User: Fold this.
Amino acid sequence: MVENEDGKIDIGKKMDDCRDDVQPESRESEDIIQIELVNGEKKNEKTENSEFSEKTDGNKIDEREEDKKEKIEKDKRDVIEEKNEDEKKESEVQKSEVEDKKDVLELEEEKRDKPEIEDKKDVLEVIEDKIDDKDDKLEGSNWTSKGEFENFVNSFNLFMKEVDFRNKEINNQMEKINGDLEKLRSEIESLGLVSLGLGDYIKREDFERVVGDLKSSFDKLAEENALLRQLVDNKIDTSKLLRIREEQERLSSKIDEILEEIGYGEEMNVGKIPPNILEIVYQTTLDDVISELWKNLGPYEGERVIGKVLEEVRLNTSGSELFKYDGKRLRAKYVSRTIEQKLISAKQVHITYNEILNKLLEHIPGHKAKNFNAMIKIKSQEYAVDKVSVLLEKVSMLEKRMEDCQNMSRAMRDEISKEFKKIFEDYREEIELKIKDRMEGIDKKANTNEILELKRGLEVANKAQEELKKELMILREEISKIKDKKEDKNEEKEESVCLDGQVGSNELKKEVVSEIPSDITDMGNKENNREVKEVKAFCGTVVICDEPEDKKVEEFLPEGLEEGSDDERVYSAIQKKGSSIPKILKKISYELSEDAVERILATLEERGFVKSVMKGKSRLYFKSKDYNEREDEV
Assistant:
């Protein structure tokens, strides 16, 4: 509340505060609000400098009462006249409002280099026409250009934002004014009098009437706002707005794709592009330009222009020999090979290509060459796909050839093996024949009789050596038997032993030992060997006399014993009458340890070849057949 020194409400100051609060931010909203506030401003011009004064003297009030009534009536008449004038001005302002909006739109259109539009309806119609013709315009260069399309989209977005902003602004201002009016009304209800000038007072009913007039002006402003909103709704259909937004999003995505293809305006380093792709792009672009040149100038004039262009470029730049015209096409031949061999740089080739392209485009003013960056990207993708398909075909072809090569290698290997065997057989036969021929020649040269005698001597010596080995084995057996008999006689005193046989055995032993060296030295004398065997028969000896040479004394071993093994030696050392472990050790000349002999005897006993019997404190071992005979005798 704004109060003076007397505690009364200062209407002029309050209205100034309301006017200061309602400060429109845009031109259109300022015009609308200013029209409604004209009455309030004019009414407040007379009461602006008035202040409440406290009447201390009751006589002064009576004197000035008549003057106050006259001033009040005069003020009422002035207010009514001003109200009528304001109503007239309101109608004029409403008409000027539309013209102001048109001016705003025209200024915005001029700033964006767009055609002049007289009304909002025309704006919407232009937008709809552009959206309906979007596909046709996208094919041309205007809509694919970034600036033109962005101007169109920005203008539409600005228009929609402006409408929404102004509606919100008007609503906010109306809410503020309504709030202020409610505050004024509540304050007026609490007071009965309000001053309109220096020492002038009006009643509550008169002030409410003034406030009601002010509120009616604001109600008209609200109606105009509603009419404006309805006008916008009628001008712009919601479905059309949705469709426009969808089209805008689709066009934005399309522009993003185009910008992505052209690289967002970034410069491309030609040296990093693969030479194969570079050659493909050059050829594609030149084919497009040459076809357009023929359409505009004709074949004859087109050939003349091409020859002239190549000649000019050839005089100014290097690398022009890579671009040759064959009567049908301007070929970019051997570009990739030349760059790969580093005979010329990719940048120099690109400069020559740009020079040729620009000179050709001078003769086709309305034609634009294909975008180089976009073509590089597209042809790179196509090249990768084509290269994969080509490589797959080559791989399949190589697999077939590998199978054929494998089959051929197998067949060749078989043929080579057959031929090698055949050659080997032929050479072997030839070698054998040559060896036989050489041996025959050696036999003819050498004395065949001497060779035969040597062969016979060798045969006799070999036979004598074999016989000696056999005889030595027999002698060893005889000596072992004699030793066993002697030991048995010493241990078994109860048995009667023939002294003559014992003496004869001793003499036989001496004779055998004394006669062994002479028998070995006389290798070829078989009768002397037989004399060794012809000994007298004594008790307990084996006599071998006048036996044929082929007859051998053999001791049959049981099945499962290998000749020459430790088991066989231990088994052979067991005597018929039984042998203890010390006797067996003496028999085998202590070649095995006592533990080894015990293990072998235990194994033989488990296998059934040997049986043992306890005799006193010692254990005697018998061969199974000898043990069985002994049991039978008992």
User: Anything to note?
Assistant: The chain has four domains: 11-255, 267-370, 447-554, 560-634. The first strand starts at residue 193 and ends at 197. The CA atoms of residues 585 and 592 lie 7 Å apart. The mean pLDDT is 68.
